[in-house]
């Protein structure tokens, strides 16, 4: 191609810099169109930079069916996000120092080609920093979101603070409800029969599988009768049934553990929980009543 037919078309925007050697007019119009739309696209992109929406976070990510377990999962998300923010902060600080060193080197460089290479490296660092800021800002929004969810959950359970004992005591309800939730969902496509995995889960919780099977069949029959009457079973009906199952079998995990020689809760091995007073003989009970 003759030299005079090759021209360099450049595009510079807030987050994009394209230099395209081309003589074709359509590329000039494409680059001009991108430049025109780039500010709006950059603004729209700032809404994202995160893996999951708020809706997904509280329905499909934090799936715990009991409130204290939901608190636990929310706190785990908070800690994970804090850790990522901390890592991102120090990475950005290091990149800032590297950028300053490049700028200092540029000010001292006399060779034209070396100066050009340093300018490219500086522009690259600046572009990377701008991209990183988007992800850091998204992490801050996620951290704020889960901080608010923590407050909402604490209001729901009516507590200002949680102890490890609170968490341990709710575990019985959580596992029974989770097991029966899984048992019900496995039974729906299996003509009402609970699958083997959840049968094992029931056994490990000390719950008789025949009773659980009867409960599942009874609930499914209730739903079918409701539908025949032209009514619709709703999600809250299932949750109420799960809570009733948890209340009915609340004693089972503890009884099964004790039959094997275990205490289901040892208060002397907890944190953030007042210890039981020593008895007159100097001994201390490890059991805690719910």
Write a brief caption for the model.
This protein is mainly α and 290 residues long.
Average pLDDT rating = 86
Amount of helix:
55-70%
Domain count: 3
Number of helices: 9
- Gyration radius, rounded: 31 Å
Query: What is the terminal separation in angstroms?
Result: 85 Å
Low-confidence parts lasting 5 or more residues at pLDDT below 50?
A: 1-15, 282-286
Shape: elongated
State the secondary-structure class.
mainly alpha
Helix and strand sequence: EEHHHHHHHHH
Number of strands: 2
Strand order of the largest sheet: 1-2
Detailed description of the structure:
The protein is mainly α and 290 residues long. It has 3 domains: 45 residues; 106 residues; 106 residues, no CATH class. Helices cover 66% and strands 3% of the residues. The protein has 9 helices and 2 strands, in the order E-E-H-H-H-H-H-H-H-H-H. It has a two-stranded antiparallel sheet with strand order 1-2. A hairpin with a 4-residue loop joins strand 1 and strand 2. Helix 3 packs antiparallel against helix 4 and helix 5 packs antiparallel against helix 6.
List descriptors:
mainly alpha; disordered N terminus; 66% helix; two-stranded antiparallel ribbon; elongated; 290 residues; single chain; 3 domains; 9 helices
Topology:
Elements (H helix, E strand, L loop, with lengths): L7 E5 L4 E5 L3 H21 L8 H8 L5 H42 L3 H46 L6 H24 L8 H9 L4 H20 L6 H14 L3 H8 L31
Helix pairs in contact: 3-4, 5-6, 5-8
């Amino acid at each position: 191609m003759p030299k005079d037919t090759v021209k360099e078309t450049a595009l510079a925007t807030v987050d994009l810099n394209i230099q395209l050697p081309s003589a074709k007019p359509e590329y000039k119009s494409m680059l001009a169109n991108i430049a025109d739309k780039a500010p709006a696209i950059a603004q729209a992109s700032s809404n994202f930079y995160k893996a999951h929406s708020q809706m997904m976070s509280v329905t499909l990510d934090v799936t715990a069916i009991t409130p204290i377990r939901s608190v636990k999962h929310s706190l785990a998300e908070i800690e994970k996000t804090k850790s990522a923010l901390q890592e991102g902060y120090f990475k950005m600080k290091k990149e800032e120092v590297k950028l300053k060193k490049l700028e200092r080197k540029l000010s001292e460089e006399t060779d034209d080609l070396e100066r050009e290479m340093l300018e490219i490296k500086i522009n690259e660092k600046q572009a990377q920093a701008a991209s990183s800021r988007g992800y850091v800002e998204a992490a801050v929004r996620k951290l704020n979101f889960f901080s608010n969810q923590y407050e909402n959950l604490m209001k729901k359970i009516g507590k200002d603070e949680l102890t490890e004992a609170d968490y341990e005591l709710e575990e019985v309800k959580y596992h029974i409800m989770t097991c029966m939730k899984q048992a019900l969902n496995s039974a729906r496509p299996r003509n009402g029969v609970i699958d083997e995995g959840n049968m094992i889960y029931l056994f490990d919780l000390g719950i008789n599988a025949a009773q659980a099977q009867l409960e599942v069949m009874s609930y499914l029959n209730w739903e079918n009768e409701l539908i025949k009457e032209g009514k619709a079973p709703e999600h809250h009906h299932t949750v109420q049934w799960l809570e009733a199952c948890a209340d009915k079998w609340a004693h089972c995990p503890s009884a099964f553990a004790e039959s094997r020689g275990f205490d289901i809760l040892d208060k002397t091995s907890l944190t953030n929980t007042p210890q039981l007073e020593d008895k007159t003989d100097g001994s201390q009970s490890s059991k805690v009543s719910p």
